[in-house]
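Students often ask why inverse folding is considered easier than folding. One informal answer: many sequences map to the same fold, so there is more than one right answer. In these notes we will look at a single instance of the problem. The structure comes first.
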């Protein structure tokens, strides 16, 4: 079941199965609800990919078509419900995600790691722009938390909001500190020719990270233990996710 859950239950599939755990619904209703709940901040939600995900889950017998209805002149819509197999896969996948930190490779760290290839003025301007976006996202999440609190949404349904708030807040603090260090001259940076854009620093690649440096390599993380645990059979997940979730919003 763990291998099946890992292959079949993608992030969007988790969202679909969780909705069907609440009640049967058709894909268009799923799309509307995901957008209304702002879950598009957690997974990429597109109508085409959502319909494809539902079809794939049906092929794997994780969901099952329950009936077809038509409202007025609208096209026919197939309603789906979650199967016991789907419920087990959902719980197994959630348990696995909660238990093991997995490499996700977000793009910002690679951009930051290679930012020394840009002039300092550009890096300062770009990161100030990033800060403005981050602060906007923080304000939006704060509004959502306040909205949920006013409507007494059970906290267990919005745990991800304070988590996102904390992660964004930590990034804002770090980026502000980095900007202050870079702008104040504490951090050494290469110079670039303003006309050609060429790096004009002396011996820019003469350092311990240089590709032609054959000194003892830096220590590498030991991932064997995490890999071994991820591939092992997970514990029973029935205690992780409640069997029913009322519609909180």
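Output (designed amino acids):
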């Amino acid at each position: 079941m763990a291998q099946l859950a890992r292959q079949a239950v993608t992030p969007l599939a988790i969202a679909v199965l969780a909705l069907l755990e609440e009640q049967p619904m058709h894909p268009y209703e799923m799309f509307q609800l995901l957008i209304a709940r702002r879950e598009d901040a957690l997974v990429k939600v597109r109508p085409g990919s959502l319909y494809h995900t539902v079809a794939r889950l049906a092929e794997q017998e994780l969901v099952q078509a329950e009936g077809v209805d038509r409202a007025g002149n609208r096209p026919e819509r197939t309603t789906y419900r979650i199967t016991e197999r789907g419920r087990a896969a959902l719980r197994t996948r959630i348990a696995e995600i909660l238990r093991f930190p997995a490499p996700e490779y977000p793009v910002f760290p690679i951009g930051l790691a290679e930012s020394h290839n840009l002039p300092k003025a550009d890096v300062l301007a770009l990161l100030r722009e990033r800060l403005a976006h981050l602060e906007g996202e923080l304000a939006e999440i704060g509004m959502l938390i306040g909205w949920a609190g006013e409507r007494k949404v059970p906290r267990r349904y919005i745990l991800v909001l304070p988590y996102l708030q904390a992660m964004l807040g930590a990034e804002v603090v770090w980026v502000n500190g980095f900007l202050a260090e870079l702008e104040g001259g504490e951090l050494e940076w290469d110079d670039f020719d303003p006309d050609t854009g060429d790096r004009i620093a002396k011996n820019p690649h003469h350092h311990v990270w240089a590709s032609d440096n054959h000194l003892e390599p830096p220590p590498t993380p030991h991932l064997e233990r995490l890999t071994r645990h991820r591939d092992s059979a997970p514990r029973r997940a029935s205690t992780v996710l409640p069997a029913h979730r009322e519609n909180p919003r």
